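Q: I'm building a small set of examples for a reading group on sequence design. Run inverse folding on the following structure and report the sequence directly after it, with nothing in between.
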């Protein structure tokens, strides 16, 4: 609390919800296929599926790029600015 009217600037970063708590975050709900292929690609060496690793990595990369493009469009392609006469 500043009593003299000083303007304070800052940044706020919201931490994503931990998925182990049972509550899924928005990114997981919006793009479950990205998480699926990421998990498959990371687990391939451990479950003996090395032959499928290139396929899973390419699927992950393609779906991640599509998700990023979709998110970029969601934030930058809103409604147009309009002028209101007063």
């Amino acid at each position: 609390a500043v009593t003299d009217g000083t303007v304070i600037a800052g940044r706020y970063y919201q931490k994503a919800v931990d998925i182990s708590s049972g509550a899924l975050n928005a990114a997981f709900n919006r793009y479950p296929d990205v998480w699926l292929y990421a998990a498959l690609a990371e687990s391939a060496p451990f479950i003996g599926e090395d032959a499928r690793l290139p396929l899973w990595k390419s699927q992950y990369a393609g779906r991640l790029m599509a998700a990023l493009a979709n998110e970029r469009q969601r934030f930058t392609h809103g409604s147009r600015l309009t002028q209101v006469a007063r």
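The helical segments are 26-30, 32-47, 53-76.
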